[in-house]
Amino acid sequence: MNAYRAIKTAMTGLRRNPMRAMLTTLGIVIGVGAVIAMMEIGQGSSSAIQKSITSMGANVLLVVPGTATSGGVTFGAGSRTTLTPEDGEAILRDCPAVRTTAPIVRARTQVVYGNRNWVPSTMLGTTSAFLDVRDWTNLAEGEPFSDRDVLNANKVCLLGQTLVKELFQGESPIGKEIRIKNVLFRVVGVLSAKGANMMGSDQDDILLAPWTTVKYRVTGSTLTTANQSTSSGSSDSVNTLSNVYPGGQPELYPERSAAQAANNPMPVRFANIDQILVSARSAEEIPAAIQQITEVLRERHRIQQGEPEDFTIRDMTEMTKTLTSTTTLMTNLLLCVAMISLVVGGVGIMNIMLVSVTERTREIGLRMAVGARARDILRQFLIEAVALCLVGGAMGILLGHGGSYLVWVFLRWPVETSPLAIAAAVLVSAGVGIAFGFYPAWKASRLDPIEALRYE
Amino acid sequence: MELIELHDIFKTYYLGEIAVPVLKGVSLKVAKGELVALMGASGSGKSTLMNILGCLDRPTSGEYWLDGQEVSHLSADQRALLRNQKLGFVFQNFNLLPRTNALENVAMPLSYTSDHLSDREARRRAAEMLQRVGLGDRLHHEPSQLSGGQQQRVAIARALINRPSLVFADEPTGNLDSHTSEDVLAMFQQLNEEEGITIMLVTHDPQVAKHARHIIQIHDGVIVDDVSSGSGNFAEARSEKAFSTSDRGHNP
User: Fold this and answer.
1) CA B103 → CA A386, B110, B124, B128, B158, distances in Å?
2) CA-to-CA distance for B154 and B143, rounded, in angstroms?
3) Residue at which a domain ends, from A268, A294, A316
4) Taking the model in full, what pTM does it have?
5) Which residues of A touch B98 (CB under 8 A)?
6) Is A137 found in the same domain as A12?
7) Which domain holds residue A448?
8) B111 to chain A: nearest residue by CA?
9) Quick one: A187 and A70 in the same domain?
């Protein structure tokens, strides 16, 4: 009996009782429909959750300089000044797993507006990429500062909500000028509220300004504030901004004459920054990003094989773990629900197929009498079961997809079409057909033709 | 030449520990082209004998030669193939597939043949068979739209579709009124005479059996009577020869 005829025979068998076939498939239709709808809605929610965890900084890496050592005394992470803004650009350029980078210069000082003042817990000099990394691009008011502001060291800043509340008391700060170490900064934008972070510190107590401005006009030189051991006083001598603007630290050493400088040239260092904030393309790519950043920075810093790195990369392991476990939990939960509904559907198919075999005992006997072998009968009933399941699966996919679409239309829940779920549903429904159709089909094929023909 | 040759067939059923002998040494011969009636009261073993002859069942012991082939030791699949190729069955209750038209009912055994006919060819052959049993205008009727006699003729067409050498008719008129019965039996006679198909009527009704020229009577698992009365057709000539060494009354 060839396959085409076998399928045709099975189809004819099903067509003889369309109502029953339909009711039989109903279990699978609902099962697969539920699976598809659950998967689509679940995946939508899952990626929404992932996105919000990510926005908390799960895929953020922090590159900080390594420790400085002097006479066996180490000064802790970040005490060396080895990172440059160019490092950040190189990371962005050469690491495919990195989405964006932002240099960071830290400061802590008083901010004054009118007769009020405040010391923000975080005062960062950065670029506008910082907002992107921290998923903070929705400003409450105004505009972020631009790359041009960074290049020109323009005196503009963005304020966090806490700062606005403390300094402006309900006034709109846009366009107002505040004083930081006697430098006037124009407020161009207000950050949206972010609340406390996981450690409980207020993330809205923040002031952002171009890193060039903070570095050269506010802190003067980070070298003197960073630590004493590496300070030669010369690394920032390339630019003279710190001398022009107030806030610069007094030089610790007497200025060298031109002859001295020629005799004993100091390595020319351009601006150094305190940290580089890196955003990986996704939480899964964090290990790859770490690897690539390490390679790039080792090369740029000319670190020989075997020498220790002069920088450290920190990731948000805790958050990443949360993210991974959330996703896994979600997926497993959906899978369990899916399996249960499919098993229920499969039991329904088996039930009806058993009834059908009993009801068609005479037909089976007749087919055997005219020359059907046991395996022909087995195949016929198996194909019937699988066909029921596949048709049910197809209808279920439509139903589930339609259902999740309706959920999206009416409830605006995030949904996400999942080709994987559809493929799995087709495979699983065929599998259910074979698994639960086999016993009835086997039972049919074991019938004795004489008994079967005599069956009333 | 004999189409069927049984030597000392025994069939014993086992109900738990109790052995129930049903056939107790049956030997018989049927020549090609005969119209045979197998007669016996219910419980005589005639159904069991027909099942064995129809290769639906295997004897406990004995030899069964069908068309020159010893078939009593064939496996289930081999017997299925044999039934498909050489045997046709007509049943008392017609056994047509419900909600399936006459054409498809008749074509059904073709699904199990080894030579794969195309759909078109299968339908053509089924239509031809239905023409032959006089149902050329009922091809697309379902069993529920046909009378008893018509249904039985569909069943006969189905039995003939694979051009069998032997057709079994198990009480073919049991569910029919006397007038229709005559029609159906006449059809068997016609098929036998015109096409030379060997037909075995299994019945308890002497009225049916009298249509056959060769009557085998079975009682309590043994053949008690095996007579050929001739009216001189070609089957007759053969059966004369075949039964010169008749094994009538092979009592154990």
Assistant:
1) 27, 12, 9, 10, 9
2) 9
3) A316
4) 0.67
5) 16
6) no
7) 3-53+323-454
8) A1
9) yes
